[in-house]
Amino acid sequence: MEKADILSLALTKKLKQYLAFRHFFSHGYALDLYPERMEPLVAEIVDVYESFRTEIDGLMRWNCFNRGDVS
Q1: Which domain, by its residues, includes 56?
Q2: Considering the domain boundaries, does residue 27 fall inside one?
Q3: Closest-CA residue to 43 (of 62, 18, 23, 64)
Q4: SS3 53
Q5: pTM for this predicted structure
Q6: Is the distance from CB of 41 to CB of 18 less than 8 angstroms?
Q7: What three-state secondary structure class fits 31?
Q8: Separation between Cα atoms, residue 17 and residue 38, nearest integer Å
Q9: pLDDT of residue 1
Q10: Distances in whole angstroms, Cα of residue 60 to Cα of each of 13, 26, 51, 53, 67
Q11: Each residue of 31-67: pLDDT tens digit?
Q12: Which SS3 state, helix, strand or coil, does residue 28 take?
């Protein structure tokens, strides 16, 4: 059986937006933050988190099934 991708392409693209924000913020540009750019990230964070959890849970179930750890 072929191993599944860890995360979907759609979720990976969304997470990259948060990674870009983290990079921008952690390198001292906090004074240059633009609320209009942050709003969509804040508005979507719960959905992105739920998608992440769902995909990781699915991957863990897939791994357990393929190792024979299913109870």
Answers
A1: 9-67
A2: yes
A3: 18
A4: helix
A5: 0.63
A6: yes
A7: helix
A8: 10
A9: 44
A10: 21, 31, 14, 10, 11
A11: 677 788 889 889 999 999 999 999 999 988 887 777 7
A12: coil
For the chain, the domain total comes to: 1
- Rounded CA gap, 7 and 42, in Å? 21
Q: Please report whether residue 42 resides in a domain.
A: yes
The widest CA-to-CA distance across the chain, in whole angstroms, is 52
Q: Angle CA(57)–CA(51)–CA(32) in degrees, nearest 5? A: 130
Do 6 and 54 meet the contact criterion of CB atoms below 8 Å apart? Answer: no
Residue 2 lies in a domain: no
Domain-embedded: residue 51: yes
Contact 53, 60 (CB under 8 A): no
